[in-house]
Amino acid sequence: MLQDKVENLLKEAFQENNSLFLIDLNITKDNKISVVIDGDNGVSVNDCIAVSRKVEHNLDREEEDFSLEVSSAGVSEPLHLERQYRKNLGRKLQVTTNNEKIEATLTEVDQNGIKLNWKAREPKPVGKGKHTVQKELVLPYSEITDAKVMITF
């Protein structure tokens, strides 16, 4: 019952600020509510406060005792949703599949998957030495086991 109430309150909060979206909702047996959000334009402290207030002010502590934590997805967190990939277009990602790990620029996103571009050094087709080639890969979401934004300094 608490789960349904919280989900409905979060939907209302995201309707009020439609640039925000839910990444994860977890409610433990002792009513510790943990909400992780993300936003198309990032997430500010005020965004977390607004979502927290929306939930906390509409639940009755007399009815059920609870604790609430609202946080944003950290930079080291993996990408899960198409919307997260979309907001990171043009950025460098580290993507892991069952077969390989790729560091590449995210160039396209759609409902089926992503497109990555990168340069690689490969042996020349004729002769000795290596040359640089432009690589491109289209990956369906089902083949991605982990994807993280790479932070470069």
CATH architecture of the largest domain: 2-Layer Sandwich
What share of residues are in beta strands?
Answer: 35-45%
Counted up, domains total: 2
Main sheet properties = 5 strands, antiparallel
For the residues shown, what is the average pLDDT?
93
Structural class: alpha+beta
Architecture overview:
This is Ribosome maturation factor RimP. Required for maturation of 30S ribosomal subunits. It is found in: Cytoplasm. Belongs to the RimP family. It is built from three helices and eight strands; from the N terminus they run αββαβαβββββ. The protein has 153 residues and is of the alpha+beta class. It has two domains: 71 residues, GMP Synthetase, Chain A, domain 3 (2-Layer Sandwich); 68 residues, Roll (SH3 type barrels), CATH 2.30.30. A hairpin with a 3-residue loop joins strand 5 and strand 6. Helix 1 packs across helix 2. It is elongated, with a radius of gyration of 20 Å.
